[in-house]
C-alpha cells in the first residue's frame, strides 16, 4: 500500500436506545492508502453507514478513532466530502446553486467568480446534468438528484470521497456511466475513496480492496479482499476475466455462506407470530 492516508483504529460505537446502549460496531481496524479505492460491503443494517459517518466526523466513535493525514477526525470537514444514500440537496436552491454553495465554501479566495462558474459547470457536465442546472430538486428525478450530489462532492476536490450507496437508486445504464466517470475522475485526481455498496459487481469493478463486514450487532470487519485487476478497467473485458470472477465469488461466498442472514429467519418467525396474534384479536 502507498502511504497510509486514513486509519481507523479499534473503532467501536454504542448508540443510546431506550433499552440501553446498542453496540453497533466493535474493533474496526483499517488502514487506507493515499488514492486507494475501498468498498464496504455487508448485509443491510450491519453498520456500513455508521462507519462512513464516523469517518465523515458526523458520528463520534465510542471507542477508538479515525486519523486522517496524521490528525484525529472529530468533526466534518471539506476535505472529506460525503455523497449520502438519499440525496441531500437544499430544495430551495437550483441544481447549479447547490453545487455553487459547496464550491464557494471550499474555493473562496482561491478561484475567481468566472473560474468558480466554469468549475461548477464542469462538474455538472461530468454527471450529465448541464441541461437541468437551473431546475430545483423538486423538479428532477431521484437519479438526477443523486447525480447532483455526486457533482457537488467532486466539485469540492476532496482528499477523501465518502459515498454511501451512491448509485443504488439509479437505472443500470446511468449507473454504469457514472461508475466509469468515477473511475476516470479518481484516476485523474487520485483521491482516496470509501464507497458503500450492496452490488458485488460494482465493488469488484471499482475497488482496490473490498472490506466485508460481519452482521451486527457488534459488527466488525470479517474479511478484506484485494482486487488487483489492472486499471483502467473495462467492464466488458472483465466478464471473461478469471480473476474478476474469482473476486466476485469470494464476495458472494462471504455474504451468502459465511454471513448468511440468520436474523431474517428469526424476523420472519416474529412477523408470523405477530400476525397470528393480530388475527386472534380481530378474528
Ligand atoms: N443514530 C442511531 N441510533 C440508534 N441506532 C442506530 C443509529 N444509527 C444506526 N443505528 C443502528 O446501527 C446499526 C447499523 O446501522 P447502519 O450503519 O445504518 O447499517 P447499514 O448502513 O449497514 O445498513 C443498525 O442496527 C441501526 O439500527
Ligand atoms: Mg446504510
From TrEMBL:
<feature type="domain" description="ABC transporter">
    <location>
        <begin position="6"/>
        <end position="240"/>
    </location>
</feature>
<protein>
    <submittedName>
        <fullName>Nitrate/nitrite transport system ATP-binding protein</fullName>
    </submittedName>
</protein>
<dbReference type="InterPro" id="IPR017871">
    <property type="entry name" value="ABC_transporter-like_CS"/>
</dbReference>
<dbReference type="GO" id="GO:0016887">
    <property type="term" value="F:ATP hydrolysis activity"/>
</dbReference>
<comment type="similarity">
    <text>Belongs to the ABC transporter superfamily.</text>
</comment>
<keyword id="KW-1003">Cell membrane</keyword>
<keyword id="KW-0472">Membrane</keyword>
<dbReference type="GO" id="GO:0005886">
    <property type="term" value="C:plasma membrane"/>
</dbReference>
<dbReference type="InterPro" id="IPR005890">
    <property type="entry name" value="NO3_transporter_ATP-bd-like"/>
</dbReference>
<dbReference type="InterPro" id="IPR003439">
    <property type="entry name" value="ABC_transporter-like_ATP-bd"/>
</dbReference>
<keyword id="KW-0813">Transport</keyword>
<dbReference type="GO" id="GO:0005524">
    <property type="term" value="F:ATP binding"/>
</dbReference>
<keyword id="KW-0547">Nucleotide-binding</keyword>
<dbReference type="GO" id="GO:0015112">
    <property type="term" value="F:nitrate transmembrane transporter activity"/>
</dbReference>
<dbReference type="InterPro" id="IPR003593">
    <property type="entry name" value="AAA+_ATPase"/>
</dbReference>
<dbReference type="Pfam" id="PF00005">
    <property type="entry name" value="ABC_tran"/>
</dbReference>
<dbReference type="InterPro" id="IPR050166">
    <property type="entry name" value="ABC_transporter_ATP-bind"/>
</dbReference>
<dbReference type="InterPro" id="IPR027417">
    <property type="entry name" value="P-loop_NTPase"/>
</dbReference>
<keyword id="KW-0067">ATP-binding</keyword>
Amino acid at each position: 500500500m502507498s502511504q497510509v492516508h486514513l486509519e481507523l483504529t479499534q473503532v467501536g460505537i454504542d448508540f443510546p436506545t431506550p433499552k440501553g446502549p446498542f453496540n453497533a460496531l466493535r474493533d474496526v481496524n483499517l488502514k487506507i492508502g493515499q488514492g486507494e479505492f475501498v468498498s464496504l460491503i455487508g448485509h443491510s443494517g450491519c453498520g456500513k453507514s455508521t462507519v462512513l459517518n464516523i469517518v465523515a466526523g458526523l458520528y463520534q466513535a465510542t471507542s477508538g478513532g479515525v486519523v486522517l493525514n496524521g490528525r484525529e477526525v472529530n468533526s466534518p470537514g471539506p476535505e472529506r466530502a460525503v455523497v449520502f444514500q438519499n440525496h441531500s440537496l437544499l430544495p430551495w436552491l437550483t441544481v447549479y446553486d447547490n453545487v455553487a454553495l459547496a464550491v464557494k465554501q471550499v474555493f473562496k479566495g482561491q478561484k475567481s467568480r468566472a473560474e468558480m462558474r466554469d468549475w461548477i459547470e464542469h462538474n455538472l457536465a461530468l454527471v450529465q446534468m448541464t441541461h437541468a442546472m437551473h431546475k430545483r430538486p423538486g423538479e428532477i428525478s431521484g437519479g438526477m438528484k443523486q447525480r447532483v450530489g455526486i457533482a457537488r462532492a467532486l466539485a469540492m476536490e476532496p482528499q477523501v470521497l465518502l459515498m454511501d450507496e451512491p448509485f443504488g437508486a439509479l437505472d443500470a445504464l446511468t449507473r454504469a456511466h457514472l461508475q466509469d466517470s468515477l473511475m476516470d475522475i479518481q484516476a485523474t485526481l487520485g483521491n482516496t475513496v470509501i464507497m458503500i455498496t450492496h452490488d458485488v459487481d460494482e465493488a469488484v469493478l471499482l475497488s482496490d480492496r473490498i472490506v466485508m463486514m460481519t452482521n451486527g450487532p457488534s459488527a466488525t470487519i470479517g474479511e478484506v479482499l484485494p482486487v488487483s485487476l489492472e486499471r483502467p478497467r473495462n467492464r466488458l473485458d472483465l466478464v471473461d476475466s478469471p480473476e474478476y470472477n474469482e473476486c466476485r465469488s469470494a464476495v458472494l461466498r462471504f455474504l451468502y455462506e459465511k454471513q448468511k442472514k440468520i436474523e431474517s429467519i428469526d424476523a420472519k418467525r416474529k412477523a408470523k407470530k405477530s400476525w397470528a396474534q393480530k388475527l386472534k384479536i380481530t378474528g
